[in-house]
Amino acid sequence: MIPKDTTPIKHKILTEIFAKRLLTLDEIAIVSYIIRWSWGFNGIEGRRQDWTRKLKKRKIADDMDMNRGKCCTILNKMIKEKKVKEKNGCYQFNEHFEEWQKFTKGKLFRHQKVYESKTKSLRKVNLKVTKGKLKVYESETLGMPNNKGEGIKNKDVRGGEHLSKDTLKDNKDKKDKKIRFNFIKKEFINLTKERMEEFDEKYPEVNIDQEIERMENWLMEEKEKRDNGEKDKIPKDYNKFIHNWLRKEEQQ
Fold first, then answer.
1. I want to staple 85 with a disulfide (CB 3.0 to 4.6 A). Which of 1, 92, 148, 223 is the partner?
2. Buried b or exposed e, range 150-183, using 16+ CB within 10 angstroms
3. Per-domain boundaries in the chain
4. pTM surpassing 0.70?
């Protein structure tokens, strides 16, 4: 039987996990909360209770005086790394640290690799554009003293106006940052780490990765309808589509 007002914790957890700092301070805070509301109760036949009752993430954050978005992000990360188990809104600390998965920065979010590869290419483009602006500015100021080299519109020798290459390049970069869907790879494009964190913070009660996967499957089903000549519901604005989907899940 568990003594009154106490929570049993194995020595191995204290010495091998807490003492050796396998968890961050914020992770320890969340784990402590989960342990308190699971192992701190008697289960069947006097044994400890393995799982917490059904808890909302906002409840966990509020009880800990932690920012909801921050708590949600850390907890989702711990679930991905198998430090915490989640089942139907109930939580359990995975004391078997040998099962934990240490995710690299590129694997923390399901679409992170896509984001990083896109970022690298965009960074190269931006550098080229920056150098291009300098070159355009020098050539324009030398040949056309009245042009301030702003890189927006330039007058040609006939007096007409045209968009500069830099402006067209900037417009292309903005278009590349929009969320799109690749029906060949069957996944969203440009779901950046920042966007995923934004979804986590705005919809703390929703399993974002799980819902993104459901959306991708739904879009592929709609694509199949389109290919068969049937009416489909494929959206034009994927950012709006994702927010609407997550909002409905949050309200259920």
1. 92
2. ebeebeeeeeeeeebebbebbeeeeeeeebebee
3. 11-99, 112-176, 180-251
4. no
